[in-house]
Amino acid sequence: MAAPRQRLAQAGLLAVALLAGCGTSPAPPHGSTLRLALPLVPRQLDTARAPDLPSLNVAHELYAGLTRFSGTGVVPDLAKSWDVQKGGLVWTFRLRNGLRWSDDRPITAQDFRRSWLRALAPATKAPFAGPMLGIVKGARGYHATGRGKVGVQALDDRTLRVTLQHPIPWLDQLVAHPIAAAYRRDAYSGPFRLAGRLVLERNLSYWNVRAVKPAKLVFTTATEGADAILPRGLAPPGVPWVQTAKPPTGPGWRKLPTLSVQLLWVVNRHLGLSDTRGLVPDAMPGSREVASEGPLGPLELLPNQRRVHLAYARQDALAGEAIRRARRTIGFGVVVPRPYRTVSELVRSRGDFVLLGWSSKIFDPYNILDLFPCGSAFNVAHWCEPSYDALMRRAVRTLDNHRRWAIERQLVAKLGPAVAFDQPSEYVRIKPGVRGFSWSPIGFYELDGMTRS
After folding, report:
1. How many domains are there within the chain?
2. 407 plus 269 within the same structural domain
3. H or E stretch covering 120
4. Is residue 252, in this structure, part of any structural domain at all?
5. Could you tell me if 339 and 289 lie in one domain?
6. What residues pair up with 255 in beta bridges, in sequence order?
7. What is the mean pLDDT of each run of 10 residues along the chain (453 residues)?
8. pLDDT at 383
9. Less packed terminus of the chain by CB within 10 Å, N or C?
10. Phi, psi of 239, deg, nearest 5
11. What is 127-178 written as a DSSP string?
């Protein structure tokens, strides 16, 4: 329990730091208007139904969660603190005093419970409800049937208790995702409120409104005249690949690390490839402790085999570049068929290798390593090692970071079905004079601190 107490203490200190000099008084009457270029027009601003990162990033500014992402972890947002009991099985979040929706109604713990149940309801068809909220006790059954008890309780107006299916160390990170935000149609809990189509204005009811420098955010797909151009981070349903813009030219571009990795998976059991170095992205906390030199195994071919079949899931220029890199990695002739549209098609393909990518949703190598257990839907190599699965069960229940990273180092040393050959970067363009831009390598943008001189 040392790690949860330490995390709680840090959360409390951060809450004090965020509150200092802020309060909940109205924001200054004047502020800048920032124009932000998105790669595509958001399809949905409902936090439960939003299907892609552009939609989620705009919704993220309209609806606040219990916590919010901040670089390498999370900090308090509508929750001022939380504590962890029963070895990570029960989490209790305590809301700030005086929280208000944009229409001045109080925000309560019951609002969070209602929002989570709505996201899990089958009729909502929330694309990320399972991956983000499925760890809550009873959530999977409710998500499938709409019936049964779910481990989310509003003990009073300011106390939300969450009971999990089994202990995990990172519920505070999962609740920072937009799907876990407090949501009401036509009322807003975040730093901004919707003022028009893709126009946001400061939400004067937000608890930390004095830290929100821009008076207005204007989103567009046109880069001309934009104050910032956000990366082309897209995650099509069923394809765990992060698309990144090509490295730009000219001043004002900033290169940002991601928690993404591109992999070659061995599908043909007669081939061997076991270089696990680079599997854990450098931007991930604990990557140095988890990294393992591992066995550098050269590609082993069947007698007289000169070509391999490479299956992949993308059909754009970025996939083409990844294929060229894969060819160089393998080092000899590669047969590349048409792209497959879904992971299930890739699994059924007769490829010797599958070219695939992954982007983490938590700041821990566990998320990448969770591709490889025997029952994983993304284990396209059909590699199964019971001792690996046993270590994964230990890792997910180990709250102390350093102890868990030691287990994850053992996991990396056991891997043999894949080689990591690229860690994509994102690129964002910031106009000179714009500062305070905060970005999470999970892909969410914090725009409330941006200022313009």
Report:
1. 2
2. yes
3. helix 109-120
4. no
5. yes
6. 427
7. 39 31 39 86 92 90 95 93 95 98 98 98 94 96 96 98 96 96 95 93 95 91 87 51 57 81 77 73 90 60 65 62 71 66 66 80 93 86 91 94 95 84 81 82 84 63
8. 86
9. C
10. -125, 100
11. TTHHHHHTTBTTHHHHHHHS-S--SEEEEETTEEEEEBSS--S-HHHHTTSG
The verdict on residue 271 lying in a domain is yes
Is-contact 107 154, C-beta < 8 A? Answer: no
> Tokens 């566990």 belong to which residue?
366
Write down the pLDDT at residue 324: 74
Buried-exposed string 74-93: b where 16+ CB fall within 10 A, e elsewhere: bbbbbbbbbebeeebbbbbb
Domain, as residue range, for 187: 2-239+428-452
Measured CA to CA in angstroms, residue 423 lies from 18, 129, 139, 201, 262 at distances of 33, 27, 33, 36, 6
CATH of the domain at 288: 3.10.105.10
Comparing C-alpha atoms, which of 167, 62, 186 is closest to residue 448? 62
Together in a domain, 219 and 274: no
| 156 and 204, same domain (yes or no) | yes
pTM here is 0.84
CA distance 346 to 251: 40
Same domain, residue pair 286 and 406: yes
Residues 363 and 278 in one domain: yes
Among all chains, which residue has been given the structure tokens 């821009």? 214
